[in-house]
Amino acid sequence: MQQIFTKKNRALLSELVRTDFKLRYQGSVLGYAWSLLRPLFLFAILYIVFVRFLKFGGTVPHYPVYLLLGIVLWNFFTEMTGQSLESIVDRGDLIRKVRIPRWIIILSRSVSALINLVLNLLVVFVFMVLSGADLAESALWFPFVLLEVYVFAFGMSLFLAALYVKYRDTKHIWEVIIQAFFYITPIIYPLAKITSLSLQQLLLLNPMAQAIQDARSMLITPKTITIGEVFNTPFAHLFPLVLSVMLLVFGALYFRRESKYFAENI
Hints:
It is built from 13 helices and no strands. It is mainly alpha-helical. The two termini are 29 Å apart. The protein has helices at 7-24, 34-53, 63-85, 87-90, 92-97, 103-131, 142-166, 170-184, 197-204, 207-219, 227-230, 238-258, 262-265.
């Protein structure tokens, strides 16, 4: 581990993260404020449409915060994978000129996404306080949920970044897939709206759905349906966790194999 995170690699990672932030908000009047404003605007739109007009979440305690937490975690996943997807191609000049660990480029994008996640979670906690939501002891497990989401997103990011170097259609295909998964993941609607137990089980096998529901159960309300409940065993949590680790291993191996040809394919 010390050989991987040498002083040189740490300095490179820090510089890449700073550069990513500068380029992302270059020419923007509000600059870094967009890190907070984007999820809040999306939350406002979804809240007005689905809560005020369609009356979703009427039986869920503190539903606005429940909705916001789901949006924030989902946005972290989409931001990390979306930014990482094009990262190797974006850094093509650097890769051709300097011999650097390719994975550190993906890591830098993930750190940028993590910084945004922390800022957004601070907003969520402010809303939790204002809404009167009480933190239970189970909230101590929340960092492990974040770790699971990060592992899943990082594995996907490695795979997508390597795939995009060879096939530029990957970006457009991923945009369609991520949009579809947004609607089949219980972010907008409570999972209780789905009356079929088998369908609930199928949806919660998705690591993002399982993580969002667990986070809501820990932070917002214990009435949230979790994977342990629908399968009637706490060991059900292991399946999405194992799937996330398997994706990380697969993504790392695929990225390592393809990284030999990055310079010539970019």
